[in-house]
Amino acid sequence: MADLDTLQQVLGVTFRDLSLLTHALVHRSYLNENPDFPLTSNERLEFLGDSLLGFVIAEKLYQEFPDLSEGEMTKLRAALVRQSTLAHMAKSLRLGDYLYLGRGEEATSGRTKPSTLARAFEAVVGAVLMDQGSDGAKQFVLNLFQDEIHSAIEEKLAGDYKSRLQELVQARHRVPPFYRTIKEEGPDHAKEFTVEVIVTGSIIGVGRGRSKRMAEMEAARMALEGFSPDSQ
Fold first, then answer.
1. Full-prediction pTM beyond 0.85?
2. Mean pLDDT value across residues 57-69
3. Which of 45, 50, 193, 229 could form a disulfide with 215 if both were Cys (CB 3.0 to 4.6 A apart)?
C-alpha cells in the first residue's frame, strides 16, 4: 500500500482526520476477506462525492457560461461526471495504487478498472467534503476540473461551429467542408496547429489553436464570418 502522505500531496489536501481518506479507499471486496477491518466500504462517501460533484459542476457552468441553455448545461455536466472522465481523473491521481482491495478484485485488475476508479474518486471527494467542509471541497473539485470544464466547452463550441458550417456548405455545394492541417509548431507540450477549411478546392477559412480540434473550430468560425447570405 502506497503512502497516504504522498497521496495528500498529490491531492493538495492535508486531512485533519486521515481516517476519512483511508475510508474513501476501502472497496467492499476488501471487507469480504477482512471482516474485522475497523472501517466500512467507501460507498457512503461515494454517494456524498457524487452529489457534490454534480452540484459544483452545475454551478460552475451556470456562472461562467451564461449563454448555455439548460439542455446544453445538462449534457456538459453529464460528460464531465461520467464514469470515463472520473476514472481518468482517478488515474491521474494514481488512486488505484492506494485502494484496499480483496484478492479476487486485485486479480481481476481492480486497480485499473474504470468503474472502481470512478467510484473511488467520488469517495475521495466525499472524504474531502467531510474533512474540509463545503468550501474546501468545492475548491478541490474546481481545481481538479478546471481543464476538463474548459476542454468540454471548447469541444462543444467546435462542434457548433463545424456543424453550422457543414450545413451551410452542403446546402449550397452538396459537399462537406474539408479540414487540412498545414502546420504544427512548438514543442510537444505547447504545440500550435494551423488548419485550413476547404470547399470545392477553395480555402474559405484558416484557424490556429493549441489542438487540431481548436484550430478546426477557429477555421470554421472564420469561414462562417465570410459566409454572407448571398455568397455562392
1. no
2. 88
3. 193
